[in-house]
Amino acid sequence: MTWMITGGAGFIGSHVVKALTEGGERVVVLDDLSTGDPARLPAGVPLERGSVLDRGLVDRVLREHDVRGIVHVAAKKQVGESVERPLHYYRENVTGLQTLLEAAADAGVSRFLFSSSAAVYGMPDVDLVTERTPCAPMSPYGETKLAGEWLVAAAGRAHGMATASLRYFNVAGAANAELGDPGVFNLVPMVFERLDRGRPPLIFGDDYATPDGTCVRDYIHVEDIASAHLAAARRLADDPTAALVLNIGRGEGVSVAEMVELIREVSGFTDAEVEVAPRRAGDPARVVASAELIRKELGWSARYDVRDMVASAWEGWRLRHPAPEH
Ligand code: UDP
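Above: inputs. Below: predicted complex with uridine-5'-diphosphate.
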């Protein structure tokens, strides 16, 4: 059987492709290359260029590659942009998913894995977020992920697909420098960029009700995200009635101040000043996963720690942004 991985040429998708192919699975990638890059794909992995909104294309790819399972990673993922362009986000993330599910149901695809996000929880008021913690997304982005989970579950029940929605916490790191994150939208690359420009990294708020006053998150290595997909793919293959919703996290909180300190150390900018900036609208004080359910269901747990994430992300950053000559 073949797995179709949408968004497989992107940052997270290419790590999923790597994990699945190394795990012996056959894959085909569907990617519109809006943010993806074919150079991220291992040799021999077929790439079909186009959008999940193109029903004719999706039908052809499912048929020609004998696809029996889908890992749907392709999506728009910037929270701020989703506030400005909600209709675009709903179209890409929800209508795109609906189109894909319709094609999957018609083609008899029996397994569907969906990339969800901790953004579905919004501002959780608990120490560890379990999958039973109420969902209350704070942005159109988070809404599209929650609506996506509902679509996936309902389609799975009605059309006999085994399904899993995987809620990613804060993804960082890279398997190697070439697979590094090309975007500068999250804490780690944003700090790298400021340091490289000789500007102090910004900490958005230090008066939260957390031990050091800065926001606490659960950072997870992208290779761990990828290995969780392989574990979930195998589970769906063995269990045709699976309908899973799982956090992918480490269950360990790290504060922004701790992350910035680690980044200064790993990047060698140990003398750099740090600047406290105003709080960023909509930031929850603490979002840390309970990683119990995924351990129980898939026997999966994270292997890498935050230092691994920052060190591998830094290598990827340096490859894309060579150090200025002195
Ligand atoms: N953050 C920060 N400075 C930056 C970028 C991010 O203090 O330059 C903080 C942000 O306010 C949040 C945490 O780092 O508390 C993680 O932010 P990110 O955007 O990476 O992920 P989020 O948790 O918002 O999805």
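The chain is about 40% helix and 20% strand.
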